[in-house]
Amino acid sequence: MTTWKRACRWLAVAAGLVMSTITPALAATPKFDSGDTAWMLTSSALVLMMTIPGLALFYGGMVRKKNVLATLAQSFGATCIITVLWMVIGYSLAFTPNAHAGLNQLIGGVNELLLGKLALNSVSPLAPTIPESVYMFFQMTFAIITPALIAGALADRMKFSAFMWFMSLWLIFVYCPIAHWVWGGGWLGSMGALDYAGGTVVHLNAGTAALVTCLVLGRRVGYGTENMAPHNLVLSVIGASLLWVGWFGFNAGSAVAANANAGMAAAATQIATAAAAMAWTACEWVVLKKPSVLGMISGAVAGLVAITPASGFVDAQGALIIGALAGFVCYLSAVHMKKWLGYDDALDAWGVHGVGGALGAMLTGALAKHAINASGSGWLFDGNAHQMLVQFYDVAATFIYCAIVTFIILKLIDVTIGLRVSREVEIEGLDINLHGEIVHG
Q1: Which helix (H) or strand (E) covers residue 137, if one does?
Q2: pLDDT at 14
Q3: Cis omega (within 30 of 0) for bond into 53
């Protein structure tokens, strides 16, 4: 063998050794999809916009003028405290596996406390095409808006200190476990429950807590005898419009990719929202002879809520059905059921989010087309009613667990620092008494 051939052979061996060392390192570096990452960053920003300024303006416009700053402070304060808690412990409990397989069906682990293991190239098995930091941020925005929705039921009468404690405890002991049950590898997801973007995890969960909270707090001073009409519906219309736009990040973003599922979810969201607004408006036109602006925006939000669990699973026809039914059913629950039963759900958080979330979750089982359950069969209209039973378990478990734990949290706060402001503070207004500020003009 010539010296040249011998040298070439040794070079080939050396190159092989070098490549065998480099290749595992290259393979260990995840290859993220830039399109998916860009879409998920956009979706995260859109969902954050739903809370501030969307929900803040939507709720702020519907309360009396003396309480508008206090209502805005609740959305803003919830955003701040939940962001910190999500970073410290919430994400870990909801979306990381528990070391004990049995416990993993109920709650996540503590591997990501303070996001200690979150690195530049970290990847979650739940979202392999985007950085885990983006997935964590996206889920953070869901965790922010869910407890913030509860504020619609407790408007005008809860202490701000009690509210902040309630948001904190409710996130950890209610939201995180239920999010894990459905989305993080827990028992409801393993059973096959369908909740594309939060019909039960977000809306039924928040709505149930809202119902329990308004029952524990009791009615506002003057409820039923004083004029408690919205002080500025312009703010509420702007807030509802921001919610509508932001909801595309909520629903289409739940595809966790820029793909066909995201496109169908966006289309279904738009169709259902418009149908629900029209259905609510039609009900008012028949009953009250006039279509109110408050009714139109309330109907739109009801449609957004109801399509949330189904958005990535239904076609356009299914979205139209869900939206129309949501507008009608939520109108009955928010307007008439509240009057019949006499509870003071100030801004209809239960009537829209609780009822709408449960309705949407059940209709998902009946109308889903773009999904396959564990047996690979179709859904109710194709001969498989079993999915409806699974959806019922999802709704029942969320309602029962949330109601019990929410009640316990409220009672603990009440016996320590107290839940409700004094009668004098409530009459004079929360803005000046809790925050030392008022709205001029």
Answers
A1: helix 132-149
A2: 46
A3: yes
CA 71 – CA 435 distance, rounded (Å): 11
CA distance linking residue 154 with residue 150, whole number of Å: 7
> With helix as H, strand as E and coil as C, how does 79-113 read?
HHHHHHHHHHHHHHHHHCCCCCHHHHCCCCCCCCH
Distance CA 138, CA 143 (A): 9
Q: What's the confidence (pLDDT) of residue 23?
A: 43
Q: What are the residues facing 420 on neighbouring strands? A: 158
Evaluated on CA atoms 297, 301, 307, 308, the torsion sign reads positive
Give the start-to-end residue ranges of the domains of the chain: 33-435
Residue 391 and residue 57: Cα distance in Å, rounded?
33
Q: Is the pTM of this model over 0.85?
A: yes
Provide long-range contacts, Cβ within 8 A and 24+ apart, for 371-378. Answer: 371/194, 371/312, 371/313, 373/192, 374/192
Q: What class does CATH assign to 33-435?
A: mainly alpha
Of 279, 282, 265, 122, whose CA–CA distance to 196 is shortest?
265
Give the tens place of pLDDT for each residue, 241-283. 999 999 999 999 999 999 999 999 999 999 999 999 999 999 9
Instruction: Report DSSP letters for 162-210, one per residue.
Output: HHHHHHHHHIIIIIHHHHHHHHSS-HHHHHT---SS-IIIIIIHHHHHH
Query: Residue 338 is which amino acid?
Result: K
